[in-house]
Design goal:
Blueprint (H helix, E strand, L loop, with lengths): L1 H22 L7 E4 L7 E10 L4 E3 L1 H4 L3 E5 L4 E6 L2 E13 L2 E6 L8 E7 L2 E6 L5 E7 L2
Antiparallel strand pairs: 1-6, 2-3, 2-4, 2-10, 4-5, 5-6, 6-7, 7-8, 8-9, 9-10
């Protein structure tokens, strides 16, 4: 009986240590929420995506289709495949520390994505997943 109590106590201690280490941080990240972000508003043409669990690269030529996405100033998102509406939902942009993350209302079909504007006409979207993709888009003129 005493031995089983010691084993149980050891397991509880082993589970508590990571929680204490993770829970003890100097400060919490700041989080601001906005309904949309004017820097990404517009229509973007897909150039390529890299990553996934294979680490490969997909382009419109290798995939056999084109894609474009549109972020509306009123928080609407639309995705087109070969110029046909493929999906639509609403989005918000959240600032967490120095990162901007797009959150989609339809969280079943769309994962949160980090975004980065390399220039006013170059957008990188990175899936917030371990095996996610990093996709490059150019602004449609």
């Amino acid at each position: 009986m005493k031995r089983s109590f010691l084993v149980l106590e050891s397991i509880v201690i082993c589970l508590m240590i990571p929680l204490l280490l993770v829970g003890c941080s100097k400060s919490l990240p700041t989080q601001n929420s906005t309904s949309s972000n004017t820097t990404i508003v517009g229509t973007w043409n897909w150039i390529r995506s890299s990553g996934g669990f294979t680490g490969g690269t997909i382009t419109p030529a290798s995939a056999g289709y084109t894609m474009k996405i549109s972020f509306g100033s009123e928080g609407t998102y639309q995705s087109y495949r070969d110029d046909t509406l493929y999906a639509s939902t609403r989005y918000t942009v959240r600032q967490i520390d120095s990162s901007q993350i797009i959150h989609y209302a339809d969280s079943v079909r769309f994962w949160p994505q980090y975004f980065e504007l390399a220039a006013s006409d170059t957008l990188y979207l990175t899936d917030d997943l371990v095996d996610g993709y990093r996709s490059l888009y150019s602004r449609q003129r």
